[in-house]
Amino acid sequence: MTLNDLEVGSSAVITEVGGEGNLRLRLLDMGLIPKTAVRVVRIAPLGDPIEIELRGYSLTLRRNDAKNIVVSRSEVLI
């Protein structure tokens, strides 16, 4: 399952960050690293972008970029 598949209010833990080259490095630099808990805060009315919360801050990602982040569901409270 990817970050793109989560619904509003769902929490998960990042297990793998995909992508190639600069995209992968950019995602890692934003704090999207394995074993990090994330929660989907909201999704834009037209479905893109999505806002997530991780490590104490909010981050907005395009759905296309979120497809590169593999997560596993959890009951982690953020």
Can you describe this structure?
The model has no long low-confidence stretch (mean pLDDT 89). The protein is globular and about 30 Å long. The protein has a 5-stranded antiparallel β-sheet. 17% of the residues lie in helices and 37% in strands. It is an alpha+beta fold and 78 residues long. Strand 3 and strand 4 form a beta hairpin. It is built from 2 helices and 5 strands. The chain has helices at 21-29, 63-66; strands at residues 11-17, 37-43, 50-54, 57-61, 69-73.
Return the structural class. Answer: alpha+beta
Overall average residue pLDDT: 89
State the end-to-end CA separation.
Answer: 20 Å
- How would the global form be characterised? globular
Q: Can you tell me the residue ranges where pLDDT is under 50 for at least 5 consecutive residues?
A: none
Task: Please outline the major beta sheet.
Answer: 5 strands, antiparallel
* Count of separate DSSP helical elements: 2
**Proportion of beta-strand residues:** 35-45%
- Radius of gyration, in angstroms, nearest whole number: 11 Å
The order of strands across the largest sheet is 4-3-2-1-5
Oligomer kind:
single chain
What's the SSE pattern? EHEEEHE
Proportion in helices: 10-25%
**Quick one: how many beta strands?**
5
Please outline what is shown here.
The chain is of the alpha+beta class and 78 residues long.
Highlighted features:
78 residues, alpha+beta, globular, 2 helices, 5-stranded antiparallel β-sheet
